[in-house]
Every structure is written in C-alpha cells, then in structure tokens.
Amino acid sequence: MVDFAGWEMPVQYGGILGEHKAVREQVGVFDISHMGEFFVHGSGASEWLDALLTNRVERLADGEAQYSLMLNEAGGVIDDLIVYRLEQDSFLLVVNAAKIDEDAAWMRGRLGEGIVFEDRSADFAALAVQGPQAGTVFEKIFGRPMPSARNRVEKVEGGHVVTTGYTGEAGFEWIVPAVRAVDAWRRTLAAGAVPCGLGARDTLRLEMCYPLNGSDLGPERTPLEAGLGFFVDLEKADFVGRGALLAQKSAGLPSKLAALMVKEKAPPIRSHYPVWADGTVVGETSSGALSPSLGVGIAMAYLPTALAVPGREVEIEVRGRRFRACVQKKPLYQK
Asked: Is the pTM of the predicted complex or chain greater than 0.90?
C-alpha cells in the first residue's frame, strides 16, 4: 500500500506480472474510487464546457463520452479528464484524484450564468473492469450484455456504467454510491475479475502510451507536445489556452512525447532518467517500466521534435550507465 494523492492505494494484490497478464488475457478490476466526479447542469452547460476544455463537448449526444483536457492560459495541461453527457444539459466529468480541488476551484472561478457545478467526489466510488472477458463479468452483474460501443454512459443502480478504459482492452467502469462500494467490489470479484493495483495499471497504460497526469502531462507541457492533438479542436470558438496552442503550432513544436524501447538488458526504467543522443543529454524519461507483455524496458520522454522520430536511436542513463534505446511508433503494445 502507498500514498497516492492522499489516498491509501494498493500497488499490488497478488503480483504485478500476474495482474497485468490477467487484464491482457482474462479480466481484472481496479479500484478507482480516488477519481473525482463533477456534475454540471443548466442551460448552456455544453457551451460553457466548450469554453473551458479542448475537445468539442457540443458534439456529444446524450449517453456519449469523450476524452478532453483542461488547460492554463499558456496551453499547459492542468488535467486530462472524461466528459459524459448524461442528458441534454447535464454532464458528468471524471477527473484525476490529485487535481480534484484544483479543478473544482478553477471551474467554479469561471462559472457562467445559469450553470450549476457540483463536486460530488466524496459521494461516489468507482471500479474499472478491464480485459477480454469484461463482458462476462458485466453480464453476471447486470444480467444483460455489456454495451459494445466505446465511450458510452448509462445509468444503473443509483450510479453509472461507462465504457472508456485505459488499458487498451475491452471493459467498463462502474461508478457507484460510495456506501455501496464494498458490495460492488465483492460482486465484481465473484463474477470472476482479478483484483489489480497501481503497478499493473501503470505497466498496462504505458504499453499503450497513454500519458499519466503528473508524470507525462503537466502545466509546462501542451497537449500538442504530448501527442494529444486529436483531442484538441482548434477550429471551435475560443477556449482557455487556445491562443497559446495556435502560436505553438505556427512556430513549430519544440518537443514531442516519444515512446522508447530499450534494446538491451537493463535495470528497470523509471521517471527522471537522462536521455542521451549524440553524446548530449536531450531530455529525461517522464515514466518508465518493464513491459510484461513485451519483456523489455519501455519509457516515454519529451525529446526535441527532430529526435522524436520512430527508428531514432538514443540512450537512457540508469545509475550512471547508458543503455541503448530506440524511439518507437505508438502504441508500444499491439494485439
């Protein structure tokens, strides 16, 4: 158990390798009750959110979801989050645990007329069920097939079921009233899911090159540098940070978040390890791990744009020694 954004969180239950394998081949469940839940209501709620977030909220139909980002005026990432449109003028936002207070204060400070904002993070728990057999778990719990479409949200048993995920596998997230968290956890385990901790979460998402807020994303980096331009709609009306992104795009990106694979046996790669190219330190790893699926060390690092090209060889320094690595096309893991 470790401290994680003020929460006591499990690194592992039975072992990171076994949990990782369960998600890739069968089904695992993560306790994600630390995540924050915001509700936004009112006429004009979609327009208000569109002015705060990078993606086009207005495009969502009832029951649909999208990944988006909240930026500062300089275009840096405050948080990355999921927006769910529950009804025409009603939205659920799931935000990162370490950013709940900051996000809530930032949004309340920009409230529009007629907009109701509620931070109900303390009222809800959540479980993420991930893996090829997630549909079987869903059917055992709810007595019906799991929604086949990604990025959907449905109301169930006083909470919501959503189909987003962060491992690259099929799955669903079950947002439940906090008082029912233990019962939901037990039902999920009884349906066949293997309990998984932070360790497997990190190796799974890193294999998919999904950036983690606080490691790969932060206020000093823009979503364009992070390779998240697909989730930034620069064509819509003004939103916070848009001007800075347009200027950066026009001038050319100074760096890009690159995926790296170690080419020789090396100690585990972690964050803040120097990355070398042509005898010079050109960056540092933002995250890293030993990939259980690939059997090699993998990492992500912001590199000068000219170096962030698949096939480019670099070196990662670990404990004073340099190990050969290569920039790879994302994602690192593919079925």
From this structure: yes
